[in-house]
Design goal:
CATH class: Mainly Alpha
Oligomer: single chain
Number of strands: 2
Structural class: mainly alpha
Helix content: over 70%
């Protein structure tokens, strides 16, 4: 997600403009050398046309997030047909996050070089290819390879989507558009949970997701206006004959900025908190369908509906964080209290201490209050960045942490459940919550968030 989650794109950050610039591939290199400028494109004429574009972009994000969620709801079917273990199922879900952890900066560079519309369309095309190949996969390794292609598509869409909104939506409406975009991850995963049980087998689900991506390509092609051509900066024009020099300058500028951010303690602390949150969230929701089946005995169709409801509850926290921060609630308090609540809820979920209804109610609480953390951390990027120009680098670091948690969570918990049962999952989440609380205690915000 969430890139997904990161890609969550929360619209409540006081440094929203800086973050959306990061999503648009503008890395704010200290030297500023070798960078071209993009001529602004007017928003689509008329409010209806503009909001149609917003709807199409958010829809593309939902389609991308569906590719993440479908692996979770299909886990029982994958176990039955391909003999996948829980650990292997965890890898099918985590591979998308692996690509996000490794490819965030290159994806941003693609947006800057080729334009947000082209990259978004390319991401949707990758989803079509990956989902189609997965539907035809005869073995688990072949399915894993197709998931890599789907993961590439997810990454490109998650990076290009906010960039399109930044370009086509006027500033006075941009906060609404970004808020809508921030819900794409839980909405897409919830859709996967609802739609999954409607298919007789997992291959039908894969074909269905590919068909949705084809529809999204057609809608994006028609609704998203093309960006104007990049105009090269004077320095870039002067060096156009020396591609090697330009590349070396770009890499050098990025290296300086990254080192500067990594030397600051607070950005690393926030990234670690984001990693722990993602670990906790995906530790539960990657295997919630299996948990509901084994512990509650719910049918496959009911499992999909219940999981969709629980994941959708995460949007409550996404939106509530902006309300709390606007009223001056302490950021460390939000993170610490949320982490504590998630940890306690996880004990009640994974341990056989409550009945069916209280257990699912705790799942709803876990998701709803958990949504407070991503928005709070993302809105803190402009506060802890060493300089205003390094805010996008801090946001990138947070996304790295988020994706790391998405990788570690399903794999760790899947292996722990197979070895020691559901009790081990409770221990993993509880310890992660405790670590997040300790990190929150050390958070310091020396400058005003509205900088």
């Amino acid at each position: 997600m969430l890139s997904a989650i990161a890609m969550h794109g929360q619209g409540f950050s006081a440094g929203e403009n800086e973050m959306t610039d990061c999503a648009n591939g503008r890395q704010a290199w200290s030297s500023g050398e070798g960078r071209g400028e993009v001529t602004p494109v007017p928003a689509p004429s008329g409010k209806a046309a503009m909001w149609s574009t917003v709807a199409v972009v958010v829809g593309a994000g939902v389609v991308a997030a569906l590719q993440v969620g479908k692996a979770a709801i299909a886990t029982p079917m994958l176990q039955a047909e391909l003999g996948a273990s829980l650990a292997q199922a965890g890898w099918l879900m985590a591979i998308v996050a692996v690509l996000g952890a490794l490819g965030g900066i290159p994806a941003g560079a693609l947006v800057a070089a080729f334009g947000d519309r082209r990259v978004l369309l390319g991401g949707l095309l990758a989803v079509v290819v990956g989902a189609g190949a997965g539907a035809l996969a005869p073995t688990l390794p072949a399915l894993m390879a197709s998931r890599c292609v789907e993961g590439l598509g997810f990454l490109l869409i998650a990076v290009a989507g906010p960039a399109v909104l930044q370009r086509v939506v006027p500033p006075q409406r941009r906060d609404i558009a970004i808020a809508l975009w921030s819900c794409f991850m839980p909405a897409g995963m919830a859709l996967a949970m609802l739609a999954g049980p409607l298919f007789g087998n997992w291959r039908g689900l894969w074909w269905g997701s590919a068909a949705l991506a084809v529809v999204a390509i057609a809608a994006a092609w028609l609704a998203i206006p093309a960006s104007t051509r990049r105009q090269a900066s004077p320095r870039l024009a002067a060096r156009s004959h020396g591609a090697t020099t330009v590349t070396a300058t770009a890499i050098g500028g990025m290296r300086v900025d990254i080192v500067t951010v990594l030397r600051a303690a607070q950005p690393l602390r926030l990234a670690a908190c984001f990693a722990l949150y993602s670990l906790m969230f995906f530790a539960l929701f990657s295997f919630l369908p299996v948990l509901l089946t084994e512990r509650i005995g719910a049918s496959h169709r009911m499992v999909g509906a219940l999981t969709a409801l629980a994941i959708g509850a995460n949007m409550i926290g996404n939106l509530a964080a902006g309300y709390l921060l606007a009223r001056g609630v302490s950021r460390p308090v939000i993170v610490a209290v949320t982490s504590l609540t998630m940890g306690l809820a996880a004990l009640g979920i994974f341990l056989p201490v409550f009945g069916d209804v209280p257990t699912f109610a705790l799942c709803l609480l876990f998701s709803a209050i958990g949504g407070l953390i991503p928005a709070t951390l993302l809105s803190s990027a402009s506060v802890v960045a060493p300089t205003a120009g390094l805010v996008p680098v801090v946001v990138g670091l947070l996304m790295q942490g988020s994706n790391l948690g998405q990788v570690v969570g399903p794999i760790t918990v899947g292996a722990a459940i197979e070895a020691w049962g559901w009790t081990a999952a409770a221990a993993v989440v509880a310890l992660s919550a405790l670590a997040a609380m300790l990190l929150a205690r050390g958070m310091r915000f020396p400058r005003d968030a509205g900088r």
